[in-house]
Amino acid sequence: MTSDINKSFYDFISNGIPGPEQQAAAGNAILPARKEAFSRFRSLGLPTLKTEEWRYTNIQRYLKDAFTLAEEEQSTVTAEQLKGASIPKLDSYTAVLVNGRLQPSLSQLPADGKITISRISDAAGNASLQTWFDKHPHLQKQSFAALNAAFFADGLFIEAGVNASLDKPLHIIHVYTAAVNAFIQPRHLVVLHKSATLEIIETSVGLNEAAIAFVNSVTEVVLEENAELWHYNVQSTIKNSRHIYHTSALQKADSRYHHFNFTLPAAELTRNNLSVALTGSNTETNLHGLFLATEQQHVDNHTFVDHQVAHCNSNELYKGVLLDNAKGVFTGKIMVHQDAQKTNAFQQNNNLLMSEKANINSQPQLEIYADDVKCSHGFTVGRFSEEALFYLRSRGIGEEAAKTLMVNAFAFDITDQVHIPALQEFLSDKIRRYVTGAINN
Amino acid sequence: MLTIKNLHAEVDGKKILKGLNLEIKAGEMHAIMGPNGAGKSSLASVLAGRENYTVTEGEVIFDGKNLLDLSPEDRAREGLFLAFQYPVEIPGVSNLNFLKTALNEIRTYHNLPAMEAKEFLKLTKEKQQMMDFNANLMNRSLNEGFSGGEKKRNEVFQMAMLDPKFAILDETDSGLDIDALRIVANGVNKLRGADKAFMVITHYQRLLDYIVPDFVHVLADGVIVKTGNKDLALELEEKGYDWLKEDVHQKESV
C-alpha cells in the first residue's frame, strides 16, 4: 500500500526506470539478489505514517521533490572541499568516496595484502561479496534497504583477512554532491574474517546547497569469530541533504562490535536504522549514540539488537540534545530469543531539550522470550535549567560558554568512550560550534 | 564602591524592594538582617542580575558603572560575586573545569590571556588550602551530591578563586554546623581587604561573632529601616524585629 503523495516516487521507481539489470552492477553473481530485492521493494511499498517503524517520521514530505537516480561520476573534488570532513591531527589511512564511489587518487589506502579496500563494483568476483551481499536478516523487511539493493550504483568493499589488522584507523570520507536533486544510493560491505581487527571512522560532507541530495545508504558488516570492529560514524553535512542510513551488523561467536553514531547539524532529515544480529555466543556489542539537532532538523534513530543465542552482552547508550525547533526520535528494540539464555542487554536513552519548541519521542522496546537474562532499558528527558544557566553566568561565564559547558557535560558519557583523541577533539569542537551557532540564530 | 539609590524591584508583578538606599565603600563589611520576606535575598538577586526580577525605579552604581545595565556575566566580570543561598547542582560539569572556564571568561573580558594550566593548578591548590576545602570535591561534578555544608564551602572557595571586589553572601551560614560556620567565616575574613567590600545576608547574630561587620542594616518590607554597628545585631537577637516594624508603621502614619 502506498499513499497518493508517495505514488509519484513509488511509480517512478517501479515503472519509470529500467530494472536492476540495466543499472551499473557489481557483476552478474549478485544480479538475482538485486532482482529479488526489487520485487521485495515493489511489494513492501514505501512507508507511511501508519507504518509502525515510521510513525514519528513523515518520510513522504521528504520524497515530494523530483529526484534523478542517474549518478554522475564526480571526480573533480578538491582537497579544499574535503576540509569539512577531515579531522585535524588524525593519523589515518583515508578512503574518499564521491557519491559512494571510491576515488583512489584522493585516498591513501593501506598497502596490506591481507586487507582489501575497493569499489564494490571491482569486487564482483569476490567470494565474500557473493556470500554476504544483502543477506542480513534485518534488511529484508525494509523497503529503503530493498530499494538500495536493487539500484545501488557503487560503494565500498572492505575485507580483512584472518588475523589482519591495521596500524592506524581507516578514515572514510563521504562526499555527496548533486547538480540536480538526486537520490544517491551507496552500498558498502565490510567483512572481517576470524580474529581480524579494524577501526573505521566515517565523516561526510555535502558540496552543493542548490540541489537536494537524498542519500539512501546501506552498510552491511560481518564479523567472523573473534573479530573486532570499532566503527565511528560522524554524520554532519549541509542543510539541503536527507539521509537514510542502514547499518546492519552480523556478529559471530566471540566477536566485538563497538559502534558510535554522531548525528550533528545540518541535514534536514537523518534516519538511522542500526541493527545487530548476534548469531554466535560470547559476543560483545556496544552502541553509543549522540545526536545534536538544531533549527528544523529531524533526527530519527532506530536501533535493534537481536540476541539469537546464549551468552551475549549488549550495551546501548543514546543521548540526544535538541535545540531550536529540532525533533528527535529514538526507538530502541532489544529482542532476546528463547535460546538466548544468560543474555546481558542494557539500553538507555537520555535527552536534553534546550528550547521550548524542541521535542523528542522515545520508545524503548524489550521483547524477552528467555527466562535467565539480565536486561534493562530506560529513558529520560530533561529540560535545560534556567537556574543552572544563571548560576554559571553569575560566575562570569557567558551564555554561549555556559550552554556549551552543559552540552559537553551531557555528552561526556559518549565522547569519553571515543578512544581516538583527535576524533574526540574534533567532536567537542563541532559540538561547541553548533551550540554556539544555535544561540546566535 | 557600590551605591544603591531608591531601588524599586518587583517579581511577577509583586513589589519587593520599595525604595532602598545603601552606600558601601571599599574595605567595608555590611550585614543585612531582617524578618522573613523582607526582601533580603531579592536584593541579592537584583544585584546579581537574576532575570525574573524587574527593576522599576532607581539605580545601582558599581565602581562608576551602571550595574543594572550589565548582563549577569558582565557583573561577575566587573568583580561582583554572589554566594548562593541554594547553590545549583550541575551534573557532568566538573568543579575544576567550571572554575577554569569562569576564570578564563573573566580574563578574556579584561583582555588577559587564558591562564596556563600550571598556573591554574597552583592557584587552585593555594585557595583550596586557604579555604580548607576538600580537594576530593574539586574533580567531582559541580555540587552534585555535595552535603549542604560542602555546597556552602564550595561557594566560598569559588569566591576565593575568582577574587571579586564586592561579594554578597546570601545566608551562607544557614544549614551550617558550628565548625563549618567557623571555617566559612575564617575563609571570608582571609579575603577581606582595603580594596574589597562585602554584603553578608543573615538571619542570625551568630555569624557576626566571626565576621565582624562595620555596619548592620535591618531590611523590612523592601526598605532599610535601621542602620547601626555590630551592637544592633545583638539588640535584634534579644528583641526580635517587631519593635522596628512598629517604628516604621509610626513613621508612615505621621
How would you explain this protein's 3D organization?
- The complex is a heterodimer of chains A (441) and B (254).
- Chain A is built from nine helices and 20 strands.
- Chain A has 441 residues and is an alpha/beta fold.
- In chain A, helix 2 (31-44) packs antiparallel against helix 6 (143-151).
- Chain B has nine helices and twelve strands.
- Chain B has a six-stranded mixed sheet, with helices on both faces. Chain B has a four-stranded antiparallel sheet with strand order 2-1-4-5. A two-stranded antiparallel ribbon of chain B has the order 7-8.
- In chain B, a hairpin with a 2-residue loop joins strand 4 (53-62) and strand 5.
- In chain B, helix 5 packs parallel to helix 6 (178-191).
- Classes of the chains: A alpha/beta (441), B alpha/beta (254).
- At the A-B interface, helix 7 and helix 8 of A face helix 2, strand 7 and helix 3 of B.
Quickly describe the structure.
The complex is a heterodimer of chains A (441) and B (254). Chain A has 441 residues and is an alpha/beta fold. Chain A has helices at 4-14, 31-44, 60-63, 79-82, 127-132, 143-151, 386-393, 399-415, 421-440, and strands spanning 93-98, 101-102, 115-119, 156-160, 170-176, 182-184, 187-192, 197-206, 213-223, 228-235, 241-251, 256-263, 269-278, 284-293, 298-307, 313-322, 327-336, 344-353, 359-368, 374-383.
